Description:
Elements: E1 2-8, E2 13-19, E3 24-32, E4 40-45, E5 50-54, H1 60-71, E6 85-92, E7 103-104, H2 107-115, H3 124-137, E8 143-147, H4 157-160, H5 166-172, H6 181-195, E9 203-209, E10 213-219, E11 222-226, H7 248-257, H8 261-270, H9 273-278, H10 284-292, H11 296-320, E12 325-329, H12 330-335, H13 337-344, H14 356-361, E13 366-367, E14 376-379, H15 384-398
Parallel strand pairs: 1-6, 6-8, 9-12, 12-14
Antiparallel strand pairs: 1-2, 2-3, 3-4, 4-5, 7-8, 9-10, 10-11, 13-14
The structure holds adenosine-5'-diphosphate (ADP).
The site of adenosine-5'-diphosphate has 12 residues, from helix 10 and helix 12.
Amino acid sequence: MKILVLNCGSSSVKYQLFRMADESILAKGFVDQIGMDNSVLEHQAAGREKINFKVEMPDHFSAIRAVLETLIDPNYGVVRDLWEIRAVGHRIVHGGPNFSNSVLVDDKVVAELRRIIELAPLHNPAAIMGIEACHKQMPNVPMVVVFDTAFHRGMPPRNYLYGVPYKYYEKYSVRRYGFHGTSHRYVGMRAADMLGKPYEEAKTISCHLGNGASLCAIDGGRVLDTSMGFTPLAGLLMGTRCGDMDPAVVYYLMKKENLDAEGINNLLNKQSGLLGLSGVSNDIRPVTAAALAGNPRAMMAISVFVRQILHYIGAYYLELGGADSIVFTAGIGENSSLIRKKVCSQLAVIGAALDEEANLNACGETVISLPDSKVKIFVIPTNEELVIARDTLEIVYEKNMGLDRFF
Ligand code: ADP
């Protein structure tokens, strides 16, 4: 059973083809710069060299066609025929108020995705184009959509309601949604495994620290709270996003800088965060290098980032009534021993003790707390694509979409 996982962005498509028998990746790659002159497809079949092509890709339809053609190419493909791909799983950033689980794609699902485009105008239209492109090119292949928001749908109202008039929740679904749910779900399950505790009993604080970053409090497999909000702009300061601040700043800057809604949206999403504060980069590596070389703004940007992570860890520790583990994941969480050290050096008060050597040498899934640490600290590489593939398999199998032929 082979499952294709697609992550369609506004000008990119990332893909991974899984063989579900052993959950191995047969091939992966991406198409970039869709709709521009210099579209590129990068493809890597397992155990083989990466290859790059320049292909003309005016839209998502042609991008997905290029991906499918590459997967069956006699020289660098990994399947003989497209019929070998039994299902497609799509990552969807925003599931809006009504999707609390992954679901099989049908007309109603696509109609609901269209209805909520306003909630994720940058992300959901591309995902819909991806679904339509697959439907045209693989018309009988079942598709499943997996939402970044779905895992957070179990949050209690006290954690998802904002202090604006209730009618806006009713009228426009203004509330906290939370994102990175697939990643938090994956590392939450792995953390319970590493603890040797049933998932239903584990209390986990998951720190997804990438270019986009969020924390999540998971209580027995259910999300209690998370730092992103109505959009992925909320919570921690990120690569280029501002994170939490006094909302009055929005109005004030609009007036002072003569910005319209698009202008302020761009400023807070694209010019803020680590980039805006440090003036160096949105990438933590050059910011760290500049901080270590004594650049005061880079040092300050890192301090703000660390303080905000601590702010949420503290809040979630109280909300959860304690925690079994704190998990670091995603680009920064998995790779920056410095950020982990700066955060963990202030966690003694909750009984989390970092093993500095283990932290420095962490590679793959690792315990980085000392043996007697009351709260364990883990580094767990996230794997959102695998969760999407698993959900797709489960749903397609549950619905008995002719899989009897393939097992
Ligand atoms: P996203 O998926 O949100 O775009 P990633 O999870 O890939 O982001 O994380 C990107 C961040 O991870 C960047 O800030 C980058 O600097 C950081 N990162 C990646 N590799 C390393 C590394 N080896 N050391 C420190 N930081 C790293």
